[in-house]
Write a structure and sequence with these properties.
Elements (H helix, E strand, L loop, with lengths): L13 H11 L8 H10 L11 H13 L1 H10 L17 H39 L1
Helix pairs in contact: 2-5, 4-5
Length: 134
């Protein structure tokens, strides 16, 4: 990858690289904030998907193998749409796209829960300070 960059260019983020790979090839989920939060929380992965490397691909493979039947069924259920004719072509969502959608949705839930927990904690601290003063 380094040979593709010109001197002084920044290395593209893992999110950008994987979003392009998902959009063009459908080969991997996009390793964005929501995906990392959702997959990490649901599958109890403490760290991962911050780099696109062998380790992250092995983790994806493990997740897929543990959930193969569900992922395969879902990928046969969802199809793309031809925007010229608005008819359903025969292209089904890839397994990577199914994982991406699941991780994204779970990630939204996890991130929202974290925000609510922080707000609750902030209120509790504020109330604790007030009760000590009063």
């Amino acid at each position: 990858m380094g040979k593709l960059l010109c001197s002084g260019d920044k290395i593209p983020s893992v999110t950008l690289v994987t979003k392009i790979m998902l959009g063009v090839f459908g080969s991997v989920p996009a390793f964005d904030t929501n995906f990392r939060a959702g997959i990490g929380y649901h599958f109890d992965i403490k760290e991962g998907f911050t780099s696109f490397n062998e380790k992250s691909l092995i983790r994806l493979s493990e997740i897929y193998e543990k959930n193969k039947d569900d992922i395969d069924d879902l990928s046969k259920e969802y199809k793309t749409i031809d925007f010229e004719t608005y008819k359903e072509p025969v292209f089904y969502y890839t397994k990577a796209k199914i994982l991406d959608m699941y991780g994204f949705m779970k990630g939204m839930e996890v991130i929202e829960k974290r925000k609510l927990d922080k707000e609750r904690e902030k209120k509790l601290r504020k109330n604790s300070v007030i009760s000590h003063i009063g």
